[in-house]
Amino acid sequence: MTTSSAAATFTALQVMQDAPVIPVIVLNDLAHAVPMARALVAGGVRMLEVTLRTPQALACIEAIARAVPEAVVGAGTVRSRADAQAAANAGARFAVSPGYTSAVGQACRDVGLALLPGVATGSEIMMAQEDGFTELKFFPAMQAGGPAMLKAWSGPFFDVRFCPTGGVSLQNAADFLALPNVVCVGGSWLVPADAMAAGDWGRITQLAADTQALRVG
Length: 217
Ligand code: 3PG
What we know:
Elements: H1 12-17, E1 21-25, H2 30-42, E2 47-51, H3 57-67, E3 72-76, H4 81-90, E4 94-96, H5 102-111, E5 114-116, E6 118-119, H6 122-130, E7 135-138, H7 146-153, E8 161-164, H8 173-177, E9 185-187, H9 193-198, H10 201-210
Parallel strand pairs: 1-2, 1-9, 2-3, 4-5, 6-7, 7-8
The chain binds 3-phosphoglyceric acid.
3-phosphoglyceric acid binds at residues 24, 76, 140, 165-168, 187-189.
């Protein structure tokens, strides 16, 4: 399948603004993809980052894109031009990368995918900005300095907005979301591997619904 030309396109900022949390999803079983996506949508979370970390990931993106039109499925762990092309071909509508290279930035532009590039240093922010990206993923957020790092960056990088990901949980998400340069956070806690393995979709819906309390403003 190729990306439907009828599907709306999203900017990285729109992807970030849709909900307080972008779930970071690892799918090991194609059969889990559609019920998992429906469970998140039922909890009010529709921007879904399916990571390209398993052999099934692209098939899962394709299944969600086809069967869950209320969801907006994106590809995470996009590290190369080939990843970007494969993600777009599978029906992904945005991309998230764990780091940044100009090649990945250009590849996402070429295939029409909004990109949330990962950064962990000032130099990486400057490289992404040079290429026109101003909405960035701060990864790995807790390990690389947490909310204090984002406060420090708000001075020199006053025109950049972030989605911190990595070590973020329901317990500390509000500390990030309270910062003016944070639009949303990313995290895997909405889709625990054991809930997925057990087919406990109700738990995933509840975890998604719990994040709605994090909405600010
Ligand atoms: C990722 O795998 O992209 C992020 O590290 C997710 O981090 P988390 O599992 O700590 O939420």
